[in-house]
Fold:
Amino acid sequence: MPLPSVSRPLESTDGPATSVRAVALVAVTGLSVVLTAVFLWGTAIPLGVPGEWTWSRIPADPLLPFSIAQLAIAATVFVCVGWLGDRRMADARPRELALWGLAASVAALGWSATLISLTPSPQNAGRATWVLYYPGPSGYYTEARSTDAPWEYLARYDEKVAEGDVLHLGTHPPGLIIAYWLLDLVRTRVPGVEALLEATWPIEAQDWWNLIREQTANTPRPPPASDGRLLWFAALTVWLVGLSTAWPVWWLVRRLHGPQAAWRTALCWPAVPALAIFWPKSDGLLPAVGMLVIALYLSAWEHRSLVRGGLAGLLAFVGVMLTLGLLPTLFWLGVWTVVRWVEPIAFPSHPDGSDPRNQPLATNASSYTRRLPLTETLSAAVPAAGLFLLATLGVSLVCRLNLPLVWLGNLRNHAGFYDQYPRTWLAWLAVNPVELAFALGLPMVVVLGWSLFAWFVARGSAETVSTIDAAEAATRSNRRAVLVATVVTFGVLWLSGKNSGEAARLWQFLLPWWLVLTAGMWRVECRRSGDWWSHASKVWRT
Structure:
């Protein structure tokens, strides 16, 4: 059974009940924003576990009122674009849809740039330079510039991993180092790129680069003057790729809940705090890469496309070359595949042998169930796994690098981190969800909690929908598979005790998964109803 789109139009919102719901939503989310500010700047409660790892607070800017005014302007533009586009989602044709997507992307860029620029120094745009330059926060640029023979460096990379570094290089494949080489190649060989970087390079980042140049002038290997723009290129790439996560989120939600719910869910992504807080760290790449892998894989499943399945596997390989932080996404895909394959799909019985797939299915009528054929399941999984293995073999041969050995060494070094820096498992079991809540943003946590609660209420209710068709049955099955894959993957990560200390940064890849699970509420809000809760239950009805 393919993964269908929700093609029927959703009703527009109007009436007093809708106004009450909108006011309630604004009030609850606004209150959660206030609570966040009070917690961060009005209390001294540590963010983490004292003695093991805590996040330090950035002092409030003396010009905070002026900054809030600027942010309000950027937010107003973004909200207005979102509101105007929302009114057109149900009827927009592909060309108009693309234009609204472009307008929303520009507004999101404006919001994000304003937010970063107004952060107190040195955490504003200047961090694009020092975070990526100094080995302490990162180290991949330094490593990329440490050699003039890239092929020889890659051939010895397994030896570097075997040295046992438990912080950066020892726990990562060489993908980020290769990325710096590729970015430098694009910067120097593609016309116009250098000029564009110069034109967009923030003053704060330039000031930091000038300071670094002064401090390293007498060292054996001072950085070239043009490398300041290379660092800005890397930071700009992380920023743009991170914000682009909204597109695969939109694609997935559109197939599960419809166009308006997809629009509203995707618009929430630029407001996720982790995007701005942890920029320009490379972890900001993973939400987009991981969600695009999921979108390609599910699209391959839907269309029985070997090409899209292969592209999913190829992109998954690129992600795993950057960091093993993409492995949970592959686990998510495995869980989703198993759930979709083992769950029977119901069809109405037709004695005349006609195709029942598009016929209504009455819950009290005679029907039969069947499991998806294994060949349909493998049509996505086999090309994805095949291209992943072929890419691994090809890169290993071309670079004379044993990638499986490197990955095993990365996992071993990551485990060794906790030997050098012990963590209390039970303490972090409690802290990690709180840290992730701040990373996603308390307003979205409220929406997520509401959506999940509505789903469980619907599951426990005896009320049923009188008639559905096979496409809707498959869509509901896909929603359940997404929910199960997300909860199971997060549960395994959470109970494993991995990343005890920086879950908000290192687990950014799972934030869009939670965002997708909020879409049930946005779908409810897209409908006209005087009974909000009853429709909330029907969204998840099975």
